[in-house]
Design goal:
The complex is a heterotrimer of chains A (244), B (214) and C (638).
Chain A lengths: L1 E8 L8 E8 L7 H14 L22 E2 L2 E2 L21 E5 L8 E3 L2 E2 L2 H10 L19 H11 L6 H5 L6 H12 L8 H15 L9 H5 L7 H12 L2
Parallel strand pairs in A: 1-5
Antiparallel strand pairs in A: 1-2, 3-4, 3-5, 6-7
Helix pairs in contact in A: 2-6, 3-5, 5-6, 5-8, 6-8
Chain B lengths: L1 H4 L2 H27 L6 H13 L1 H30 L15 H4 L1 H24 L9 H10 L1 H28 L7 H30 L1
Chain C lengths: L15 H8 L5 H4 L3 E5 L5 H11 L2 E5 L17 E2 L11 H11 L6 H20 L25 E2 L5 H19 L2 E4 L2 E9 L2 E9 L5 E5 L2 E4 L20 H8 L4 E2 L4 E7 L22 E5 L16 E2 L1 H5 L9 H13 L11 E4 L1 H7 L1 H19 L8 E10 L2 E2 L12 E3 L17 H21 L13 H19 L6 H15 L6 H21 L11 H25 L23 H4 L1 E6 L7 E6 L14
Helix pairs in contact in C: 3-6, 3-12, 4-5, 5-12, 10-11, 14-15, 14-16, 15-16
Classes of the chains: A alpha+beta (244), B mainly alpha (214), C alpha+beta (638).
Bound molecules: flavin-adenine dinucleotide and FE2/S2 (inorganic) cluster.
């Protein structure tokens, strides 16, 4: 396969970036998107050019490191996949692919396609935990949990914190991310004692970081590689009102 | 306190509440408007008179004005904040699979606002005595306006846009107020669809009937 | 010259840990605040260690190379985490768990440590549940388990196929809580380059800030390494591509002995390599072998599509060779059997390096829906990667490097041979002997971090309360920084022709061919030569673009490969030394007449502990393994 890649290149957070176009020949359809870019870099280094910087680690769609905006889609055009699991079979020979970094005020570009997503950690740090000190836990089965709630909590907790929801949202809102965390704890009895403080603190931090509001558009749900559902946001809203 | 009233969630909450309140008023307004279809101007003018003078309605009126102002102010604040949340835009437009209506709320809302201003000049301000006209014969004013082809078309287009606005607005308000889950989501969608077709079409059908059948 | 003292407490097996805790020294709250601890790594061992130590009141500094602690590769663990809860009432107990781990490790682990990890296993489940980890549940609301890894009880707690993610996110949540409290300071995007030893004690580390390229010094009263395994030395493995050995390897070069480096688990079922660009082998959970049948064609080069090969032309070689366990033989056995068939020319797929894992019969019997419910996400993932629908066509699988049982040698205190340097999780030589059982690594990592290290490190720090904060403006820190900076300079100055990845691939091939599923004297000796040649070539022809003082991913890779090139040789040396087959280590010279692994307890019931010796060959020390409580047996799955 032969591709034309239009990739955002930016030296560091302070410099101005621009698109650079690369022609890449010899792409195999069974490569993953990340492998294709690695292959591009190997060719660039061979030619004495600067490689493209991007993040990736597990290559299994679970660590949430990878993530780029591919032809207008965070993580590319296939639903439910991270960039590292996106196979080149989904592109046509001769296609032009435009690759941009996640764009959001709280996600400043570090270099090329790599952005700083620390804002998500800051939100979790504000209250995304249950304050049980090591050694203080009761025997596990003394806390029975309704199976349905436990399953719903699991569905929310599969969030890999990649930031695709923010990248997809027209408002760069982090509500899906926050709602996944809030839902997980709200659905489990263990999370209830701190429920009110948690949701207030996390929303306040979300605002402080500069994320937008939720317009209930659903782009986040559509692009979430773990298919986290929008009604988690409704639950987050409920939890928030209940906290006053 | 400030943080709580103006948090990303609270702002939407206030907007949703204000919006829902306005949604409650629309069927009442429609009910009165439908009287325009009768050949006798009396019932319509009486209703209009009642709405203009009955004390309780006065209170509601103030609430409505407040709701409109709040809805607009919050809408603008949220929108500006949202734009600021992505200072650098994407080169390729987002192609995520989403409801198109939701993406243009500020524009559909803005269009509705423009219509509202015109509407106020034509009726409400007359009642308040700001604009000249006979507040006791809105029936005649309405017929005069609908007779103008351009006005009728504008009226029509605006209600079409209002329909788009409402379709997302209703679903969104439920979601914002936290009333959505796997089961209710599709139900709410259908309710929104029905509401956003029936109410705007109810309004829009009046000039059609007046122009073509009267 | 180091001396090995494993410091195993006296007394009966069940009482050792209790006695240890009763006698361990404590540190007062006021003193804890004055003591600094560095934790490198935020996986399922590092995050628990850091949060537990922070909760206790120590001043903790945590490092990881990712942008956030929650991306450590523990996140990728699929199957589950073991504990001796006996919730299924199937006769499980701490002793049974202990025994299974010892036996699964082919009797090459320390009894006392293994018993201790089994002992704390239940507390781990309690703790994770309390902090909101959504483990799978029964309808009655209690926790459920599944069977895993070929043991006779059901003791594996799980969250669908994402247990590692769930427990890691749980541990991360405790960690951020401590960051908020101010007891823990997080330093992400830092790569540890060197350990700083002052007067014989570990006193700090030197790291590279991966964003600015700056080399930073950090000091502490004790240093904990939780840096994970080094399976990426094979280039293709189930590990994250940035996993590395650099932290442990440089600690080794500073005097921490390395134990059993050649003990590497090769997992039998991963998606096979498809082309030379592939960077990663994705694991297909062991649980698939509960329903899938493994086979290859009976005739060499049978090119018919798998579904057109009739029953009589299929060789279900695991069922044929191991009638008792069939497709459920342990990982090492299954991996070797697959390799044997492929080497003999019966492999399938375009490369011939794959075997079929067929669900046809299971689907026929249980229906597609049942299979979908059990393995849906794995089938989806397989399809995303290969484009093949395994509901209608067999999956192709092949073994892949997965877990390193070897690692830094530690005593019962989890302390390495450098006082004040501790190692937890996969980075230590661990409790798994020569082979790890499924779902016991998360257990070991979390157990080390939450429930063991906090006691043992306090025992050490109790004698450090008079030591003031360690100054980083000393000759030792300067020396470590210069050494790291010079290595970077050297890497950047070669400007040769080949990329770090090219060298990594070459090294991976040598490792895989000679120090993989089977090993022999000739191959290993040869490979040592090959590695040396490759290392020389590396330092002559490496091409690293860019500068040192900027974000430079190629430089990061090159540094890691440079360390792998040295570690590789030690692995070969270790494999060469051990002329027996045990667990994952299969020496062709030591096998039974029917080609099964043959252990040699008389000569090799020891941990091979290697001490760095500069340019001279490393020095071998032996920690004799005494089995007081279990009887050594030959494993058999026939
Ligand atoms: C695909 C897969 C599936 C698995 N499934 C299971 C399972 O089901 N059950 C089970 O029990 N086990 C399983 N395992 C094994 C288990 O997941 C690991 O052994 C365990 O998670 C290792 O945890 P750790 O804390 O030691 O290291 P890791 O989680 O690997 O963490 C290493 C940490 O060290 C940091 N680090 C590394 N090098 C440096 C450096 N030089 N400088 C700074 N920081 C550094 C990293 O940033 C990271 O934070 C699986 C392993 C894999 C690969
Ligand atoms: S690299 Fe881990 S999710 Fe893509």
């Amino acid at each position: 396969m032969k591709l034309k890649l239009k990739i955002w290149k930016q030296g560091d957070a302070h410099s101005r970036g621009s698109f650079v176009t690369y022609d890449l020949d010899g792409v195999a359809p069974e490569m993953s998107f990340i492998e294709m870019l690695t292959y591009l870099n190997e060719t660039l280094i061979g030619k004495g050019e600067e490689p493209v910087t991007f993040e990736h680690d597990c290559h299994e769609g679970i660590c949430g490191s990878c993530g780029m905006y591919i032809n207008g889609y965070p993580h590319g055009p296939v639903k439910g996949l991270t960039t590292c699991l996106l196979s080149m079979r989904n592109f046509k020979d001769g296609e032009t692919i435009v690759i941009e970094p996640w764009r959001a005020k709280p996600f400043p570009v570090i270099k090329d396609l790599m952005v700083d997503r620390n804002a998500l950690d800051k939100i979790q740090q504000a209250g995304g935990f249950i304050s049980v000190t090591t050694g203080a836990a009761p025997e596990a089965n003394t806390i029975p949990v309704n199976k349905k709630n436990s399953d719903l909590a699991f569905d929310a907790s599969v969030c890999i914190g990649c930031g695709a929801c923010v990248a997809a949202c027209k408002n760069a809102s982090a509500m899906l991310f926050v709602s996944a965390k809030i839902s997980q704890y709200a659905l489990l009895p263990q999370g209830r004692p701190e429920g009110k403080e948690r949701v207030r603190a996390m929303i306040a931090e979300m605002d402080r970081q500069g994320f937008g509001s939720c317009s209930n558009t659903g782009a986040c749900e559509a692009q979430c590689p773990k298919q986290i559902k929008l009604f988690n946001i409704a639950r987050l809203n409920r939890e928030y009102y209940k906290a006053f | 306190m400030n943080k709580i009233l103006f948090s990303a969630v609270s702002k939407k909450f206030v907007m949703a509440l204000a919006g829902l309140f306005l949604l409650l008023f629309l069927p009442v307004h429609l009910g009165i408007n439908l009287m325009l279809l009768r050949s006798d101007p009396e019932p319509f003018n009486t209703a209009a008179h009642f709405m203009a003078t009955f004390p309780l309605v006065k209170v509601v009126e103030i609430l409505l004005i407040l709701a409109i102002m709040t809805h607009i102010t919050y809408g603008l604040i949220i929108q500006v904040h949202n734009w600021l949340s992505r200072p650098v835009r994407y080169a390729v437009r987002n192609k995520s699979d989403t409801s198109a209506f939701s993406r243009f709320m500020i524009w559909t809302g803005g269009s509705v606002l423009i219509f509202l201003v015109i509407h106020f000049f034509n009726f409400y301000f007359i009642k308040l005595g700001i604009v000249e006209g006979d507040p006791e014969n809105f029936y005649a004013i309405a017929y005069q306006l609908f007779a103008v082809r351009g006005y009728a078309i504008l009226y029509w287009v605006c209600f079409l846009i209002l329909g788009f606005h409402l379709y997302h607005a209703l679903q969104s308000a439920f979601q914002t107020l936290g009333w959505s889950n796997e089961f209710w989501k599709p139900v709410i969608r259908v309710i929104s669809l029905i509401y956003s077709i029936v109410i705007p079409m109810g309004f829009a059908i009046i000039p059609l009937i007046i122009r073509f059948f009267k | 010259m180091i001396t090995l003292d494993s410091k195993i407490p006296e007394g009966p097996l069940e009482e050792k840990w209790t006695r240890y805790k009763a006698n361990a020294k404590l540190v007062s709250p006021a003193n804890k605040k004055k003591l600094d601890i560095i934790v490198v790594g935020t996986g399922i061992s590092g995050a628990p260690a850091a949060s537990a130590l922070g909760e206790m009141g120590y001043n903790v500094k945590v490092f990881c190379y990712q942008d956030t602690p929650r991306r450590a590769h523990s996140v990728a663990a699929q199957g589950g985490i073991n504990a001796a809860k006996n919730y299924k009432n199937d006769g499980d107990s701490v002793y049974h768990l202990f025994y299974d781990v010892i036996k699964g490790g082919d009797f090459r682990a320390r009894e006392a440590n293994v018993y201790r990890i089994a002992e704390v296993s239940n507390q781990i489940i309690d703790h994770f549940t309390a902090i909101g980890v959504p483990f799978a549940r029964e309808y009655g609301g209690t926790l459920t388990t599944r069977s895993f890894g070929g043991v006779q009880v059901s003791r594996t707690f799980y969250s669908r196929g994402q247990t590692g993610q769930q427990v890691l996110l749980g541990a991360y949540s405790s960690l951020v809580r401590q960051i908020k409290e101010g007891t823990v300071t997080m330093y992400p995007r830092r790569e540890m380059l060197d350990l700083v030893v002052v007067d014989g004690k570990a006193r700090g580390i030197v790291v590279r800030n991966l964003i600015t390229g700056e080399i930073e010094r950090h000091s502490a009263h004790a240093v904990v390494l939780a840096t994970g395994g080094y399976g990426t030395i094979y280039y293709l493995s189930t590990l994250a591509v940035n996993s590395n050995a650099s932290a442990a390897w440089n600690a080794y070069k500073r005097g921490a002995a390395f134990a059993n480096p050649s003990f590497v688990q090769i997992h039998p079922s991963s998606v096979p390599q498809m082309n030379e660009f592939q960077s990663k082998l994705t694991l297909m959970s062991e649980s698939l072998r509960n329903d899938g049948r493994v086979w290859v064609p009976k005739t060499k080069g049978d090119s018919r599509p798998p579904n057109e090969i009739p029953e009589e032309d299929r060789d279900y070689y695991l069922e044929r060779r191991y009638p008792a366990f069939g497709n459920l033989v342990p990982r090492d056995v299954a991996s070797r059997a697959a390799k044997e068939r492929c080497d003999a020319g019966y492999g399938v797929g375009p490369t011939g390096l794959a075997v079929n894992l067929d669900f046809r019969d299971a689907i026929k019997k249980q229906g597609q829906k049942a299979i979908e419910e059990k393995y849906g996400n794995l089938f989806d993932m397989y399809k995303d990667i290969t484009g093949i629908d395994s509901y209608t066509e067999p999956m192709r699988i092949y073994p892949a490097g997965h877990y390193t049982m070897g690692g830094l040698w530690v005593n019962y205190d989890l302390m390495t041979t450098i006082p004040g340097l501790f190692a937890v999780g996969e980075s230590n030589f661990s409790d798994h002997g020569a082979n790890r059982l499924g779902a016991s690594s998360l257990m070991q990592g979390a157990g080390d971090g939450y429930f063991i290290l906090p006691y043992t490190i306090s025992n050490y720090l109790a004698s450090e309360i008079k030591t003031p904060r360690i100054n980083t403006d000393t000759a030792e820190f300067q020396e470590a920084e210069t050494r790291s900076a010079e290595k970077i300079k050297r890497l950047l100055s070669i400007r040769g022709k080949q990329t770090a990845t090219t060298f990594h691939k070459k090294l991976g091939k040598i490792m895989w061919d000679h120090c993989g599923m089977t090993r022999n004297e000739k191959g290993l000796t040869e490979a040592i030569g090959l590695i040396r040649e490759l290392r020389e070539e590396f330092w002559k022809d490496l091409n690293v673009p860019g500068r040192a003082d900027e974000l430079n991913q190629e430089l990061e890779k090159a540094g890691r490969v440079a360390d792998f090139l040295e570690l590789g040789e030690l692995m070969m040396t270790d494999a060469l030394n051990r002329r027996e087959s045990c667990g994952a280590h299969f020496r062709e010279e030591s096998q039974t007449p029917d080609h099964e692994a043959l252990r040699n307890d008389d000569e090799y019931a020891y941990v091979a502990v290697w001490e760095y010796n500069g340019d001279e060959p490393p020095v071998l020390h032996k920690e004799e393994l005494k089995f007081e409580f279990v009887e050594l047996k030959q494993r058999s799955y026939k």
